[in-house]
């Protein structure tokens, strides 16, 4: 026999908590994402199940698993909550001060100057907003945006289409060759693998590694796989120590200030190629928030990244640029 409804009005908070729990399969993870206590998350789920008079989760399973009725309910709730969020964003698109919650993901490439400045700026412009900042790789940020765990991301645009996400290109970041200071080999010999210096590369699961590999494949170049690393700083340290050379970008090179004196940067020989830094958002992100973040990012990138790089490497002019 179904339980009687515990109250007449269905709570939007219950639905949001239910959706988050269904995606993560964990009360603890949902509590971390929402900033609530685990007991509060559990209470919201119990209230929803009592209201509906049915169990939405198999509570004996870990991780949490939806019941058949829970799966049907989730499909309908996904559509309904998307419509509600989109309507809310459009209605409040001109009211930054009234924003209440913003989840923003950024890549590590910007954590020296750009992201901290953006955080201070947004806190001043949106005083009543609770912010969540998450630093991760580009593919992790895009995954979190698709799962609606973030509202907005600053990431490298992947080669494949992003389907339900909207991307706004910010910066063209050309690929360059980075050598230990003092090396005199012709660049063409280095890139073709004819020089004695080993190639040090990014980990294969990163977008940048796939882009570099695709370009080398187009050139018909195969380089021995002697060293892979997911950390730009570690890669720059290895090159500065004379352990090898790498293919990098001005944005990444700008982060490695402590190693600059021991490194030289050169244009990629032959056909140029680049990656794109973009602002990626879910369809229901506030237009006002999107516009103000876009404006601030462009200003910060110009001041802290582009101009200092052009002062050091003027040959990057017209290559390392903001995208209109």
List keywords for this structure.
Arc Repressor Mutant, subunit A; elongated; D-Maltodextrin-Binding Protein, domain 2; disordered N terminus; transcription; alpha/beta; 6-stranded mixed sheet; 324 residues; DNA-binding
Distance between the termini: 61 Å
What is the CATH homologous superfamily assignment of the largest domain? Periplasmic binding protein-like II
- The helix-and-strand class reads alpha/beta
User: Main sheet?
Assistant: 6 strands, mixed
How many domains? The number is 3
User: Total strand count, please?
Assistant: 13
| H/E topology pattern | HHHEEHEHEHEEEHEHEHEHEEHE
In the CATH scheme, the class of the largest domain would be Alpha Beta
Quaternary state reads single chain
Radius of gyration, in angstroms, nearest whole number: 24 Å
Number of helices: 11
Principal-axes geometry comes out as: elongated
Low-confidence regions: 1-7
Topology:
Layout: H1 12-24, H2 27-34, H3 38-52, E1 57-58, E2 65-66, H4 68-91, E3 101-106, H5 114-125, E4 130-135, H6 138-146, E5 152-156, E6 166-174, E7 176-180, H7 187-192, E8 201-202, H8 207-218, E9 228-229, H9 232-240, E10 246-248, H10 250-255, E11 263-267, E12 274-281, H11 287-312, E13 321-322
Parallel strand pairs: 3-4, 3-5, 8-9
Antiparallel strand pairs: 1-2, 5-12, 6-12, 6-13, 7-10, 7-11
Helix pairs in contact: 1-2, 1-3, 1-4, 2-3, 5-11
GO molecular function: DNA binding; DNA-binding transcription factor activity
Domain HTH lysR-type: 10-67
Keywords: DNA-binding, Transcription, Transcription regulation
């Amino acid at each position: 026999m179904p339980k009687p409804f515990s109250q007449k009005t269905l709570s939007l908070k219950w639905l949001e908590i239910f959706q988050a729990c269904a995606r993560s399969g964990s009360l603890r993870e949902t509590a971390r994402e929402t900033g609530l206590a685990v007991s509060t998350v559990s209470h919201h789920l119990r209230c929803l199940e009592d209201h509906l008079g049915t169990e939405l989760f198999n509570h004996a399973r870990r991780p949490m698993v939806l019941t058949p009725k829970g799966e049907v309910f989730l499909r309908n709730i996904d559509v309904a909550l998307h419509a509600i969020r989109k309507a809310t964003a459009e209605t409040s698109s001109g009211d930054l001060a009234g924003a209440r919650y913003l989840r923003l993901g950024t890549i590590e490439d910007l954590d020296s100057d750009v992201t901290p400045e953006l955080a201070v700026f947004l806190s001043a412009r949106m005083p009543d907003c609770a912010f969540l900042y998450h630093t991760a790789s580009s593919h992790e940020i895009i995954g979190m945006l698709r799962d609606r765990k973030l509202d907005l991301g600053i990431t490298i645009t992947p080669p494949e289409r992003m389907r339900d996400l909207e991307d706004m290109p910010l910066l063209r970041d050309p690929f360059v060759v980075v050598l230990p200071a003092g090396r005199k080999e012709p660049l063409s010999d280095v890139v073709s693998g004819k020089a004695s210096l080993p190639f040090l590369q990014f980990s294969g699961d990163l977008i940048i590694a796939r882009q570099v590999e695709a370009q080398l494949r187009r050139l018909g170049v195969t380089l021995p796989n002697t060293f892979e690393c997911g950390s730009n700083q570690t890669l720059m340290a290895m090159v500065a120590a004379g352990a090898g050379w790498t293919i990098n970008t001005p944005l990444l090179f700008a982060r490695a200030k402590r190693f600059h004196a021991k490194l030289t940067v050169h244009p990629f020989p032959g056909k140029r190629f680049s990656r794109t830094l973009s602002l990626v958002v879910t369809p229901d992100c506030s237009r006002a928030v999107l516009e103000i973040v876009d404006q601030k990012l462009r200003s910060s990138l110009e001041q802290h990244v582009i101009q200092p790089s052009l002062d050091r490497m003027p040959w990057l002019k017209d290559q390392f640029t903001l995208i209109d």
